[in-house]
Design a protein that fits this description.
By secondary structure, the chain is α+β, with helices and mostly antiparallel strands. Helix content is 41%, strand content 15%. Strand 2 (54-58) and strand 3 (64-66) form a beta hairpin.
Amino acid sequence: MGRYAISWKTHEKRMNYIRKELEKRECKAMILFTPLNVFYLVGYTIISTERPTALILPVDDEPILFIPRLEEDHSKFRV
């Protein structure tokens, strides 16, 4: 981990906090489209293009990243 890298444990804490807030509001999941929000939550860097990307954070399951097929190699390298 580099000097400024954020640990996965920190990302897990962030996800758990959001999951608790979602449960309070009786929501099943949250969808993120903004690259900065996705990075904050799971640490994945999205290259902003005209192709849409989204992250779904379910209350009771692992996050799901939707990416364009053209970004598939990039995502395998980054995750």
